[in-house]
Amino acid sequence: EGLMPQDLINAKPVAAAVKEFFGSSQLSQFMDQNNPLSEITHKRRVSALGPGGLTRERAGFEVRDVHPTHYGRVCPIETPEGPNIGLINSLAAYARTNQYGFLESPYRVVKDALVTDEIVFLSAIEEADHVIAQASATMNDKKVLIDELVAVRHLNEFTV
What we know:
Layout: H1 5-8, H2 12-24, H3 36-43, E1 45-47, H4 61-64, E2 88-90, E3 96-97, E4 103-111, E5 114-123, H5 124-127, E6 132-133, E7 152-154, E8 157-159
Antiparallel strand pairs: 1-2, 3-4, 4-5, 6-7, 7-8
Family: Belongs to the RNA polymerase beta chain family.
Pfam family, one: RNA_pol_Rpb2_3
Protein name: DNA-directed RNA polymerase
């Protein structure tokens, strides 16, 4: 009857783990608050380092290089120079994370050469099942693709 939560659970191990994470983890940084843009950029940073991830010393060129699954999800330009190159990246402009933590990119649905206003977010795994046209594909005023051949991506390969 008179039991309190602190009587049942010892909070010291939880508090110690939280202090260790924020005090010494590779994933913990002070917020860059020089201006609003730098703060937003800092919040959209993605790291491959840390617990369960890679180390700077053991990460080879293959891991640091741009992969076709990064398309629309990770900015290929914004990465630090030096030992962290390719290990710390930023999300692309419209990328987001889904409920499982996977990065998703938005795409407009095309039906019978008509570019609709319907937008779907696809992860790299889901994207493999679709044919993805380039955003630069030419269309007329009625949003109909006018080129007979359009450059597309399918199964991480570029074709026409």
